[in-house]
Design goal:
about 280 residues, 12 strands, transcription regulation, 3-stranded antiparallel β-sheet, WH_DNA-bd_sf, 9 helices, alpha/beta
């Protein structure tokens, strides 16, 4: 495997695409001898014949077809890798676990396009504690509880009310708001990885029974069926309006802090601009 390199794969793909060694050399900007040597060294490293050569044409063998297909994928992956490493100033991926920015999501996207049009904004949903930062799926992340990972720094950009999600036919759904004590005898649905609700919101002697869920769609399905209730940040209600579910404010529960998280040692160039914009949006209400 150590004898295989990208130059060999590029030569193989170019020969197949161009049809001859001469045309492949022209396409790659190298000599025909260099193309021939690259193919020969690749065939030796793999121990198989990849191309059939005649005086009229060059065609892949059956094994060659499979190798060419894989070579195209490898070269595409490498191209993506290079683009990923060098696109810091042209692309910004903001991760989130359940809900992005609630009622501010659209305003954030539109204002970003106006103010920072040279940097493409993408919102990425990753149901993980770091909302995709640790997985490399995003550059910044919106989180609603502080990450345990010390590699990340965070700043609070705003606060959101806590709401209770109930089945529409639940007796509590007729109220304009509820208290934590009203929910103590219910089954509380929790996501221990990314959720903001936990039994510690209640006094020790009145904590509800919990049932674990792993995704917002599962959470909504169980609530709509009347098998449990959820306590969540206000943004969830804006992003996930579902038939059969109502949201009511929990008036004696502390608000949820909305944080922006980033790699402490490698912040995205757009970090400060995002912090300022999100803080302005939440401050404006």
């Amino acid at each position: 495997m150590q004898d295989i390199d990208l130059r060999q794969l590029r030569c193989l793909v170019a020969i197949v695409d161009e049809g001859t060694f001469t045309d492949a050399a022209i396409a790659l900007g190298v000599s025909q001898a260099a193309v021939s040597r690259a193919l020969a060294s690749l065939e030796r490293a793999l121990g198989v014949r990849l191309l059939r050569r005649t005086s009229r044409e060059v065609t892949p063998t059956a094994t060659g077809l499979r190798v060419v297909a894989q070579a195209r994928r490898v070269l595409a992956d490498v191209s993506d890798l290079v683009r990923e490493a060098t696109s810091g100033h042209t692309r910004l991926r903001v991760g989130y676990a359940w809900s992005a920015l609630g009622r501010h999501t659209v305003a954030f996207q539109r204002r970003w396009s106006t103010l920072q049009g040279d940097t493409d904004l993408q919102l990425v949903r990753v149901n993980a504690p770091s909302a995709g930062l640790a997985e490399g799926a995003c550059d910044l992340a919106v989180v609603r509880r502080p990450p345990d990972d010390r590699r990340f720094a965070t700043a609070i950009v705003g606060l959101e009310r806590r709401l209770c999600a109930l089945a529409a036919d639940d007796p509590l759904a007729r109220r304009r708001s509820v208290r934590l004590a009203d929910l103590a005898d219910r089954v509380l649905l929790v996501d221990r990885r990314t959720g903001t609700a936990n039994p510690e919101l209640w006094p020790p002697d009145t904590r509800p029974v919990t049932e674990e869920t792993h995704d917002v769609d599962d959470w909504l399905t169980v609530i709509a069926a009347g098998r449990g209730i959820g306590v969540t940040a206000e943004s969830t209600a804006h992003q996930y309006r579902r038939p059969g579910i109502v949201y009511r404010p929990v008036r004696d529960a502390e608000p949820v802090a909305v944080r922006l998280a980033w790699w402490r040692d490698d912040p995205h160039p757009a970090l400060q601009a995002v912090l300022e914009l999100l803080t302005d949006l939440y401050r404006a209400g």
